[in-house]
Amino acid sequence: MHQHAKKHPGLIPQFFFMFLGVSGASLYLIRLSRGPHVSWDRKNNPEPWNKLDPTYQYKLVAVTTDYKSLKKEGPDF
User: Fold this and answer.
1) For 48-65, what is each residue's pLDDT tens digit?
2) Which of 51, 56, 57, 74 is the most exposed place for a label (fewest CB within 10 A)?
């Protein structure tokens, strides 16, 4: 690939942005797989989302929601 980039220097930005896109998508998938809505261990913790506090911030960025002031609205399971 190094020799190909030397022969065609106009492809260097394309290689850079392809690498950037693939790495960004991979990091996002890793972030999604570690979230509270994914159950990797069905025997010990089949419903991990039920053990979260009502103040847990689910979103990456919450613009208007103050999660500290929320009260629990559902029953305990």
Assistant:
1) 777 777 667 666 666 776
2) 74
